[in-house]
Every structure is written in C-alpha cells, then in structure tokens.
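Slide 14.
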Amino acid sequence: LELQKLRDFAWRGVNRAKVDDLRGRLNKTASSKLFRELVGIYLEIGDQGSLHATCEEWSVRFPSDPGPWLFLGQARLANYYRYFSAREGLEVVQNLERAIGLDPRERKARVLLAEVFYRVGAVQRARTLIEAVSSGIDEPELQNLRRLVGAAKPLGNDIEALFRSAEEGGVLPNAPLAANSPTIRSEDGIGSIRDALAGIAEMQGVRKA
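Slide 15: predicted structure.
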C-alpha cells in the first residue's frame, strides 16, 4: 500500500511536468499529436474537467480529427461502467459514432462501441461492428470480445431502452472482458517508482535529497 502511494505521488509529479510542457508547446504551435498526448495524460490521471475542455479546444482547432471524440467516448465509458447512467451511456455512443463518422477507419472507436453494445445486450449491433474491424489475425482482446458476443443472448437493438433497463436494474446483462494486464513483479514496481522519482528530480525547482 505504501509503495503504491509513493508510486502514485511520483507519477503525479511526472504527469504535471508533462502537462506543463505539452501545454506550453501547444500554445506555440498546435497539432493533433500534441493534443492527443495531453488528453491521454488527462484520461490516465482521471482529470475529467481538463480532458473535456482540452477535447473541446482540439475539436475546434482540428474539426476533422476523430481524436477528441474518441477520448471523450473513452472517458464517458469509464463513468458509465461506474454508475450505469443511461444518459452517460448514450453520450458514449454519440461520441464514438462521431469519431467513426469522421474517420470510418477508426478501429478503436468501433471496438469500444462493440464492447458497450455487447455489455448492454445489443448483441447483433456488436457483432456487426466486430465483423467490420476483424482481420486475418485479431489481437487477443478482440478475439475475446468476439467469443463473448458469440455466446451472448440478444436482448434487442433499442439502445436507449437497453441503457434504461441497465440503469433501473443496476446491473449490465453481460460480463466484462477479461483483464489482460500482466502481473507486475515487486522489483518492477520498485523500478517504476525509481524512474518516476528520477523524473521528478529533473523538474525545475525540485532538489534531490
């Protein structure tokens, strides 16, 4: 627990430095790449306010980029799985569909949309999206999603009704995807903390002990 607290503190410091650097570079020369990096940090640390504000700025400066809508969809999806709010779920769908509308090749948005459709019971719609992104060799996560969708019972295609039903019942009808994260060995965790603390030591105004 103490190691985790130390690691969280260290990475917060590193992320603050990264945010300041990226914001300074964006103020000089804006680019989709810089916006993507900055919003990715906000998503990782759970800074919803900054994420939404930055995505709005990103979408205004680069209106044809699907990136801000993809990140908004990811952030709202995390909130949806926490609270099962039908309103939040519908916002997820709108954001991800907007990303796909701007770039029909946007694979990640399609996979996320397929996942949320599967979770609420819109199995046929999930299956259609999976078929659209499948290739000869699919990554393990997509293979797992395909397997779960294939075994799931369809509950209809009325997305709003399915979201409302999940909100009222307080439970989603289909299980989440299995976690694929590798186990972190204790020495890996300590190494990560060491690297993060080293990053903090390089920040302006921070002295080494």
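Speaker note: Residues 153 and 184 are 35 Å apart (CA to CA).
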